[in-house]
Specification:
This protein is 65% helix and 0% strand. With 375 residues, it is mainly α.
Amino acid sequence: MARELSAAEFADAKPHYEILDGLRGVAALLVVWFHIFEAHATSHLDQGINHGYLAVDFFFILSGFVIGYAYDDRWRKMGVWEFFKRRLIRLHPMVVLSALLGAAMFYTQGCEVMQVGNIAIGVLLMAMVMNMLLIPLSPAGDIRGFNEMYPLNGPSWSLLYEYLGNILYAFVLRFLPTKILAVVVGLAAVGLTWFAMFGELGDLCAGYAMTEMDMTGGSLRLLFSFGAGLLMARLFKPIKVKGAFWIGAVVFVILSALPRLGGESHFWINGLYDSLCVVVVFPLLVWLGASGKTSDLLSSKLCKFLGDISFPLYMVHYPFIYLYYAWVRNHPANFVESLPEALALFFGSIVLAWLCLKFYDIPVRRFLISHMARK
């Protein structure tokens, strides 16, 4: 869910699409609520904000679109290593901080499901270092029991795929003619739809574990969405639209909040819904957001704020989700009874994300950029 560096950070950086920044923030907020509701669900069949996991696909489309827009015409004066340095500076400081935060909170998250007190400190530190370096853990090395490749901060899995998408772009995708790229994206859409409709999940909530099913699902999600974003960057021509941010935000909330479709007996219906969201609706939302302009001060400030906190919020909220999950298990309560704690988690995560942005992420990136400029 990368957001490109500002003009103040790179002198040759291009202007942002401010509405896309705002929609990215809306998606990040929905991810937090999806994870909050996850603590009360027994499975995806009874999950609130049921399709919130699709925000990752939206992030991948945005990332492909923004990277294509920002870098496709720069390769004559920017080498591959320069591109990778820029991406690492933009993304990795928050990866490191989220791993440290996850490790610091680990032993506060014990319940009958997560027996964290049995984990030796040395094992915890090893998991922290691997998370900081984005080295995934196999199911056998999971220290929490949720089968995550990054058990200190589950959402880090999508950053691994983001990096893989950047590598694929630098060495393969940017060289493809537009027609060939369109064929690749089309084939990936077919594979993604097949996985969603006829896979064992009946949805696209896959990629966070080192299993064959998750790696297949995660790879298809990345290949279609990132590739579609790149393709859109090449073909994009704005259309006239008013209220693009509010239209996009409302549509995204509705799509995410709909209950699971088809129940236990017709998984393919929900898989088809997920596929239509990702393959059809999300690219349209990105096109809409890139075409629109904010027409009032409130919308402009809101989009900027949401865009600024979107990545920190996505990266730092999950250690507190583990804590909330453990609290729900240790003090059995339904969602209504837990609403004060859920609201505290939600708004607290927003405040924490802003603090991390202002006092860690921006200063660290500025230091690294200035150091890079002297090389």
